[in-house]
Amino acid sequence: MLTNYFALSQMNRLNNMRIGKYFIECHGEHIIKLNRKAYLDACGDKRPSECVMIGDDIYLDITRARQEGLNTIFVNSKGLEVKPEIGIVVNSVEEISKDMISKLEEKDLER
């Protein structure tokens, strides 16, 4: 997970949404988004193309992550009008499915 907030509070949010079990590490308290190193550090030993940034900020979470080669899922909880090339768009985190993640993995295998 990459966040510009405190790791503990973000993990609590994820646990409340019942998805915390899918996150092993938390990055960003010291090097925050916009900094290229923050996105790449969050990938750990994986290639950026093997990682998925899920977020609700079109620039910090989606545009910047895509610039660094990460796959993205935009949580459009505010109903913004977005262009198709933005990638996968959902209205809430709960809409994210294993099928969506599988499609991103298949795309990586095609590269």
- Number of self-contained structural domains: 1
Query: First CA to last CA: what distance?
Result: 24 Å
Continuous helix count: 4
> Can you count the beta strands?
3
Classified in CATH, the superfamily is HAD superfamily/HAD-like
- Return the CATH topology: Rossmann fold
Quaternary:
single chain
Helix content: 25-40%
- Describe the global form: globular
Q: What is the CA-based Rg, rounded? A: 13 Å
Roughly what fraction of the amino acids lie in strands? 5-15%
Spell the H/E element sequence.
Answer: HHEHEEH
What CATH architecture do you see?
Answer: 3-Layer(aba) Sandwich
Low-confidence stretches: none
Topology record:
Elements (H helix, E strand, L loop, with lengths): L6 H10 L19 H7 L9 E4 L2 H10 L3 E5 L12 E3 L7 H13 L1
Parallel strand pairs: 1-2, 2-3
